[in-house]
Write a structure and sequence with these properties.
The protein is built from 7 helices and 6 strands. It is of the alpha/beta class and 232 residues long. The structure holds 2-phosphoglyceric acid. Belongs to the phosphoglycerate mutase family. BPG-dependent PGAM subfamily.
Length: 232
């Protein structure tokens, strides 16, 4: 009997304005740069070139991931597929670090402390103060949602994985080719789960912008090795 596999495409948004400015971003809604737009288009071009055409799309409620999805889908003529946006695919919330420059913060608090805030598994950054410049409580897209005031990777996983299991796994199991356009840390949460990476080892994993990552699932929804589409 032929082995049937279903492919999943993960793509981190293209370079954002705050990636360029080296600022902690998290839930703050920054746009793509010109380079980010080009990266998103290149991702879609690669999908078309490899004949890997998504049939269902999931993304966060953040502009940089939504635009990346649309630019990529436009390149492979798939803008028409059903898409679902959900805050659970958002970037991890950077708390009180939101908006700060990463280099300046390292100079102030030490590189080691900043590394802990950025890459430790379960140490969340200091919380965001209510009522400040980056308070999102009046943003209509989060109406009715308990917006976190900071998140570690562990806390990010606690909202990404239930969404993955409940909303995305059944769609893949039904044979759809799913594309997820999301963020460095919401994708690290997924890759950690799918590739069985330990809490310690995940600290060393970086997800590049605009570079499609592929998993193939067997009929029992077991994920194979992950690989970059460009290398296949
Ligand atoms: O600022 C952020 O929200 C993220 C992603 O750009 O940064 P980091 O690399 O520190 O996880």
């Amino acid at each position: 009997m032929p082995t049937q596999t279903t492919k999943l495409i993960l793509v981190r948004h293209g370079q954002s304005q705050w990636n360029l400015e080296n600022r902690f971003t998290g839930w703050w809604d920054v746009d793509l740069t010109e380079l980010g737009i080009a990266e998103a288009r290149a991702a879609g071009h690669l999908l078309a070139e490899k004949g890997l055409l998504p049939t269902r799309a999931f993304t966060s409620v953040q502009t940089r991931a939504i635009k990346t999805l649309h630019l990529a889908l436009a390149e492979c003529d798939r803008l028409w597929i059903p898409e679902t946006k959900d805050w659970r695919l958002n970037e991890r919330h950077y708390g009180g670090l939101t908006g700060l420059n990463k280099q300046e913060t390292a100079e102030k608090h030490g590189a080691e402390q900043v590394h802990i805030w950025r890459r430790s598994f379960d140490v969340p950054p200091p919380p965001l103060e209510t009522g400040g410049a980056y308070d999102l409580s009046a943003d209509p897209r989060y109406a009715g949602i308990a917006i976190p005031n900071t998140e570690s990777l562990k806390l990010t996983i606690e909202r990404v994985l239930p969404y993955w299991q409940d909303a995305i796994v059944p769609v893949i199991a039904a044979g759809e080719t799913v594309i997820i356009s999301a963020h460095g840390n919401s994708l690290r949460a997924l890759v950690k789960h799918l590739s069985g990476i330990s809490d310690d080892d995940i600290t060393g994993l970086e997800i590049p912008t605009g570079q499609p990552i592929i998993y193939e699932f067997d009929a029992h929804m077991q994920a194979g090795e992950r690989y970059y589409l460009k290398d296949s």
